[in-house]
Amino acid sequence: MKFTIQRDELIKGLQLIQPIIISHTTLPILYNVLITAEKDKITLFATDLSVSMKCSLPAKVNKTGSSSFNAKMLFNIARELPQDSAEFELEDKNRAIIQCGQSSYKLLGISAEDFPAVPPFTTTSSFLIDQVLLKDMLQKTTYAASDDESRLILNGVLMSIKGHKIIIVATDGRRLALVEKEVELPDDQKIDLVIPAKTINELIKVLKDEGQVKISLTQNMASFEMENCTIISKLIEGVYPNYQQVIPGQCDERITIERESLLGALRRTAIISNERNPSVKLNISKNQIQIIASNNDVGEANEQIPVKYSGKSLSMTFNPNYLMDPLRALSSDDIAIEFTDDLSPAVVKSNIPFIYVLMPLRIG
What is the pTM of this model? Predict the structure, then answer.
């Protein structure tokens, strides 16, 4: 194997696959990235055995071949290369020479034959969707997925496709984010799949603002194929909770408020909040929301936001991070908050088909 590649291209490719690499594993090969040189490109492949990523980079290939090398070490070398292009040559199956200007590296690797194969994939169904649309929907919901491995099904994001509508839902049991869009899909499409949050987070990084992504499915896997990058992931098995039961049918009160104003006030008051158990109190009264954060060890923060509101007064306590997450993800100038009483869930809505349900904290 011998090829010449632009430093920036190599850095970009290695940067994409870094999060796939496991930080701690009993299989040393999983620290590596498989490099395959063919025709006028090289392909990088990394896997943690649940999620795999393959991306192609333009290169001048003098000799085809493949081998695997420590991904982190190769990335660190690529960032420090002194010139715009570097020559990569495999001396044998386990050693490569990287030459760039006056710098030279000899890098030991592991044979390609020992690297886990690309997961076998027999497509049962597939469809196309705009990358920018999918990326936007995922960004508006994924933050609400759980990281508690005791309820594995909540570690994923539900993608539900029925006819010409796609619904994406994430919940950790304390909050729920949902967004839906009308899309051009075959009439007979009816699919529910739960995609691991790790896969979603990597997918968000590679989705672009143009072009389409081809989503292909098997019984327990999904593939997301873009122009120069493909992500293959196992799906989470099990039945996703009935999210429709969580969404309140109707709330008694509604406040419309400028999104940036509320986000800024929450960000400023949350500074005082206890880091281990963060909370802020929202005192809602006529034409005003008062936000209070207190910490016995530090002090108190207090901010008032004028709003148009003439309903009943009440106080609700929330985790400020949970309340700020949808405000960061949305782009509308104004959002609406609906509520019924101090202990019922609050509902955040926007000018798009988006719903965020958040349970208040019960503070003794």
Answer: 0.91
